[in-house]
Amino acid sequence: MSTHGGAAEDSTFVRTYTLTRGRTRPRHLLGLETVLDAGPGRPGPGQAEECEEILVLCREHRRSVTELAGRLGRPVTAVKVLVSDLLDADALVVPVTAPYAASGTDADARPSPQLLAALSAGLKRKWPDAIAYPQAG
Predict the structure, then answer these.
(1) N or C: which end of the chain has fewer CB within 10 A?
(2) Better-predicted residue by pLDDT, 96 or 16
(3) At what angle do helices 49-60 and 76-88 cross, to 10 degrees?
(4) What is the predicted pLDDT for the residue at 125?
């Protein structure tokens, strides 16, 4: 490996470190598939220019954490830290999908029995040896 290549790697590492202000963990639990949408808030002063790029992308349409990292050319962990900052500022939101959203005036809306049954079946397939809990009667 040439000296020039090593210097470029060091430069990228330092840039990522300063981008996140040395933080390596986001404050919010974010998966690679977490979908984000632009929110009503604004990023705080002193935010990285990547925060504005994230907002521009999310204003176009909803984006996943993975897609944002790919489009920015930044490590997923760094993007999660920036997204977490934007969530704190309400500049980004995690949209709630229709089955979970309260409908109109019914603020006590709950997931349908069909949705819960599908979720239960999926969990049983993924973890067949998990402890079974008694069914509510």
Answers:
(1) C
(2) 96
(3) 80
(4) 75
Q: Which of 96, 32, 87, 86 is nearest to 64 (CA)?
A: 32
Axis-axis angle for helices 65-72, 49-60 (nearest 10): 120
Q: Which of 50, 57, 58 is nearest to 19 (CA)?
A: 50
Q: Which amino acid is at 129?
A: D
Residue 31 phi/psi, 5° resolution? Answer: -90, 170
Q: Tokens 């705080």 map to which residue?
A: 44
Using DSSP's 3-state secondary structure scheme, residue 106 falls into: strand
Tokens 């999310």 identify what position?
Answer: 58
The pLDDT value given to residue 137: 47
Q: Are 29 and 60 in contact (CB under 8 A)?
A: no
Alpha-carbon torsion angle 70, 76, 82, 84, nearest 10: 120
- Residue 6: CB atoms within 10 A of its CB come to 10
